Amino acid sequence: KHILVLHGPNLNMLGVREPGIYGHQTLADIDARLSQLCVEQDAGCAVFQSNHEGELVDRIQAARHDETEFIIINAGAYTHTSIAIRDALAAVGIPFIEVHLSNVYKRESFRHHSYLSDQAVGVIAGLGPAGYEAALRYALAH
Ligand code: DQA
């Protein structure tokens, strides 16, 4: 099973970035845990972070050619702005789960709309790093 985990802008700053909202774990901590799960489950997991919308689009397009069967994506602020990322996910037709560390619904109203949610298999928000893990377990089982 091949899973692609995508992290959008500013997620490289986890650990130092607004720890009251996003917690103290770094992206490396989260990725290490996900990689460990993938090894345990004998799955191939690729992880990619970018602060650039076009690079995320390019990586989603590349997933067509690398046997990716499921995408787990935290698009960060692009969740609320990016028709391009939505279109890329639709173009490749690979099922995806949308993840947010924070509960976006108890934050500013501009975080309540997502360009991805209505296309996602499911959405997880507010569970911190455990949300990625739940998404990964689901992707591995389906
Ligand atoms: C986020 C929520 C977004 O609103 C925000 O722009 C982020 C992170 C989250 O994981 O909670 O960068 O996607």
TrEMBL record:
Substrate binds at N74, H80, D87, L101, S102, R111. It is an enzyme of class 4 (lyase). The keyword Lyase applies. The record marks R17 as: Transition state stabilizer. Pfam families: DHquinase_II (PF01220). Belongs to the type-II 3-dehydroquinase family. Homododecamer. Pathway: Metabolic intermediate biosynthesis; chorismate biosynthesis; chorismate from D-erythrose 4-phosphate and phosphoenolpyruvate: step 3/7. PROSITE patterns: DEHYDROQUINASE_II. The keyword Oxidoreductase does not apply. Its EC number is 4.2.1.10. This is 3-dehydroquinate dehydratase. The active site is at Y22 (proton acceptor), H100 (proton donor).
